[in-house]
Amino acid sequence: MKRAIYPGTFDPVTYGHIDIIKRASKMFDEVIVAVMFNEAKESLFSPEERLAMLKETLGDFSNVKVVIGSGLTVDFASSVGADVIIRGIRAVMDYEYELKQSTINMMLSEDIETIFLLAKPQYSFLSSSSAKTIALHGGDLTSFVPKSIADRLKLKIHPKPRA
To answer: Could you tell me if 85 and 105 are in contact, meaning their C-beta atoms sit under 8 angstroms apart?
Structure first.
């Protein structure tokens, strides 16, 4: 069985993430989407909230499992029996960052490969950060995230006052 992990912060999950997961699910017997902690990013949603959003969004994918991961990505991949780490690439800046991370992972474990999937053109500009910024300013999130995620994002950023 070929198992891959797709790690990320998913704060929140976007259409770009969903597209990468959909494409990876066609290549592998099982894809484990791992909600990871990134000390370089400040998350809006808790890991449990991100897990719930991903499960809700990915419910139609029979070979996709969503979990909370921890530690080094390559160690987590090994712990769940994954052969491959999936990474999405939107632009040159992503490639430079991902190349560095993938090289480090190869040095830590020769048994786990990294595969880059290029973002489709309509998602090449899309990021969780841009979705959060648009939500903060009351913009239309239709092209960025599913409606249920947009609703959660708006509520998180602009909580309703208590009566």
So the answer is: yes
